[in-house]
Amino acid sequence: MKVESLQMSFRKFKLLMLPNQKKYYYCIIERSGNRTCIMAPFFMFAASTVFGTVAAAAESWGKNIKWVTMKEAQKLAKEQNKPTMILVTKTWCRACKALRPKFASHPEIEKMSSEFIMVNMEDEDEVKNPDLQPDGTYFPRILFLDSEGNVLTDVYNKEGSSQYRYYYSDTKPIVDSMNEVLRAAGQKVIKGKEL
């Protein structure tokens, strides 16, 4: 299954999910048609060495948003009695790439993020937990948890697909969902608008 490719001079790099395997592989496909596949974690390590850490990747979703790991979020949510907002994204995902600049530059999302514990599970950071996949493993997925760590399955993109309820392609439904969570928690809400 081809996920994304990048044409570079005489080689093509592709991220593939090989049949009957649960690991992604980067495949170098030469013009002759020969294929050399290397496990993605090596490339992810190499890319993080060259381009920065996972924290830097999360920061690209909003540098004024305080991003934490899932493990930290579980502790902080209980301590601060705050809900958690989780973005499940992939660096190769075109929909994620399209949403990232809108999300990162949206003032209401940035302002409301202080009322949430914010987690960006990107690539290998994604926690393999069925609770965080209520209707599938598509990307980007945005989920909300209460302060006890329970997934708020009734908070989803009301303007989106009934098949992919936690998929958001625009910021207005994200702001609406954030406000819904804050209202349920008895906190202040911010009127959402599209920029």
Could you please describe the fold and organization of this structure?
The strands form 2 sheets. Strands 1-2-3-4 form a 4-stranded antiparallel beta sheet. The chain has helices spanning 40-51, 54-59, 70-80, 94-104, 107-112, 171-184, and strands at residues 2-8, 11-17, 24-30, 35-39, 67-68, 84-89, 117-122, 141-145. A hairpin with a 6-residue loop joins β2 (11-17) and β3 (24-30). 31% of the residues lie in helices and 23% in strands. The radius of gyration is 18 Å and the shape is globular. The chain has 195 residues and is an alpha/beta fold.
Keywords:
8 strands, alpha/beta, 195 residues, single chain, four-stranded mixed beta sheet, four-stranded antiparallel beta sheet
Strand count, sense and barrel status of the largest sheet are: 4 strands, antiparallel
Work out the strand percent: 15-25%
Roughly how many Å apart are the termini? 35 Å
Shape: globular
Please count the helical segments: 6
Question: How much is the average pLDDT?
Answer: 77
Stretches where pLDDT is under 50 for at least 5 consecutive residues are 1-34, 36-54
The number of E-state strands comes to 8
Structural class: alpha/beta
Read across the widest sheet, the strand sequence of neighbours is 1-2-3-4
The sequence of SSEs as H and E is EEEEHHEHEHHEEH
Cα radius of gyration in angstroms: 18 Å
Helix content: 25-40%
